[in-house]
Amino acid sequence: MHYPDKWLRLIAYPVLAFVIRHFGDMTPWGQLLKQPLYYADLFWDMLIVTASWEANRRLIIYLDQRYSWVTQKFQRFVIQFFTALPMTFIIVIPMIYLWNEIIIDRGGFDTANLLVNDVPLIIIFTGMVHLIYTSLYYHQHYQGVIAVLENRVRELETSVAGVNKSSDLLKPSGFRELLIVNYGTSSVPVHVHTIAYIYKQNEISFIKTFDGKEYTSSSSLDSLEELLDPGMFFRLNRQLLGNIKAIRQFKSDSSGKLLLTLEPLFNEEATVSKKKAAEFREWIGGKV
Predict the structure, then answer these.
(1) Could you read off the pLDDT of 93-146 as tens digits, one per residue?
(2) Residues 144-155: pLDDT tens digits?
(3) How far apart, in whole angstroms, are the C-alpha atoms of residue 111 and residue 18?
(4) What is the C-alpha separation between 194 and 285, in angstroms, rounded?
(5) Which of 149, 198, 270, 280 pairs as cysteine with 260 (C-beta 3.0–4.6 A)?
(6) Ranges of each domain in the chain
(7) pTM (2 decimals)?
(8) CA angle, corner 196, sides to 195 and 199, nearest 5?
(9) Residues 6+ apart with CB under 8 A from 48
(10) What backbone torsions phi and psi does residue 188 show, to the nearest 5 degrees?
(11) CATH-assigned architecture of domain 178-285
């Protein structure tokens, strides 16, 4: 994953250094600006920000190549959390000690200030950096998904246009001869006479053909029903639309509901309600 973050980093480093330097410091501005050490502190804080940000950025890019935020969310979160935070502490705390106790010798390591100010800042800083890059990751991922879908739509439009020109999509009656359906990541045309039945599951329409293949469609069952010849297809129930050639037998149960046997075999019970039983018998009887 390539992150377009050049300007973000150039702006963030000095801004965050300024925030860190003033965090918990109540010294008046006028007094600070007169102290040369103030500018040295800002410079060193910017070095700390740069070093820790770059280390976290490299860690994120490394993990991007091995763990996907899309398919491995939990594993990615655990590894990133338990790596990034200790790594940032290891970078920041020695740099704070080096500056305050060795380079300028402020006199005694201020453990209380470290716990009250620096530790919360390290946690907030690390969380902020990772939140920014996680947002950029998802933004780029879904931009890519949208681009792929747009290409597929254009391909589908081209395919449909070509089929329309050859008059293969519509029957003379106005009903569809072909349906454009999904097979994996591809869009394919399927002749309606090869479709045994169409059923709805979790708001997705599944198309089962006589040769056992299964396709999907984003169109609703109601929309598909309007496209198909009612002489060939009957709305058996709210979840199922069947081809007359797929109905091998049917019988009434004690309530008057019809129980159907379909071929290829349907995984669930195929029924026609008592209310629609007479209409179904009339429909299929006209074809015998």
Answers:
(1) 999 889 888 888 776 666 777 777 788 889 999 999 999 999 999 888 888 778
(2) 778 777 777 776
(3) 22
(4) 22
(5) 270
(6) 6-153, 178-285
(7) 0.54
(8) 95
(9) 17, 20, 91, 92, 95, 96
(10) -135, 150
(11) Beta Barrel (2.40)
